[in-house]
Specification:
With about 210 residues, the chain is α/β, with parallel strands linked by helices. The chain is about 35% helix and about 30% strand. It contains six helices and eleven strands. It has helices spanning about 20-35, 50-55, 70-85, 120-135, 155-170, 175-185, and strands spanning about 5, 15, 40-45, 60-70, 90-95, 105-115, 135-145, 145-150, 175, 190-195, 200-210. Strands 5-4-3-6-7-11-10 form a seven-stranded mixed β-sheet, with helices on both faces. A hairpin with a 3-residue loop joins strand 10 and strand 11 (about 200-210). Helix 4 (about 120-135) crosses helix 6.
Length: about 210
């Protein structure tokens, strides 16, 4: 996700990503439907922190822990929290590929947006493995972004996007739901739902198997 400072230098450490303005309300509405009334949620790869600061206050009864691998993003998340009064926990420095994650289990839900297509394929497996280690029984991993379904792109624009990603970095690319379900099952999770979102995106729900 591309990020940038406020061009006037008035962000107070807050980073801005244009995509969050476009998708945050749709994601918030979906999370309200997909999550139970209360619990603890870990957000993976929180980026600028704009999603967390906007969505967390709308989820009454939920404790939201944002995290990221980038120290500048950690500072931005905490700055957004202070700016908005969102009530987030202090952001955690977390590398998906370094297991176990530095978060005290269990958590009831894990959410990540726009991560898997801009990361090497092994990150998908490590996301499933890490989630399985810290999710509560019947906990859910919610993954937002563009995905192939049954080996096929769901729109020409997604196919074009995939080609651009792979041209930029051969390790990147739009992932297939069947492949992700296989990785999930290897880790003790299972794909339980695919929720259609605007702009040919989805939220995939992976539930920890009992």
């Amino acid at each position: 996700m591309a990020t940038f400072f406020n061009p006037q230098g008035e962000g107070g450490g807050r980073l801005f990503a244009p995509a969050t303005q476009r998708n945050r309300d749709a994601i918030a509405a979906a999370l309200k439907d997909l999550l139970p009334p209360t619990g603890t949620l870990l957000e993976i790869a929180s980026g600028t922190g704009e999603h967390a600061a906007h969505i967390a206050p709308q989820l009454d009864g939920w404790r939201w822990i944002a995290s990221d691998i980038d120290a500048a993003h950690i500072a931005s998340i905490d700055a957004w929290n202070a700016h908005t009064g969102a009530g987030l926990e202090p952001a955690a420095l977390l590398d998906v590929g370094q297991l176990p994650w530095p978060v005290t289990p269990p958590v009831d839900a894990i959410f990540t947006a726009n991560l898997l297509h801009i990361a090497p394929a092994e990150i998908s497996a490590q996301l499933m493995q890490g989630a399985a280690q810290i999710l509560a029984q019947a906990g859910v991993l919610l993954v937002y972004g563009p995905f192939m379904v049954g080996g096929a792109h769901v729109s020409p624009s997604n196919a074009d996007f995939d080609a651009k990603l792979r041209a930029n970095n051969p390790a990147w690319g739009v992932r297939d739901t069947l492949w992700l379900d296989g990785l999930a099952r290897d880790a003790g999770l299972m794909l339980s739902a695919r929720t259609a979102m605007p702009a040919n995106n989805f939220i995939l729900s992976f539930v920890r198997e009992p």
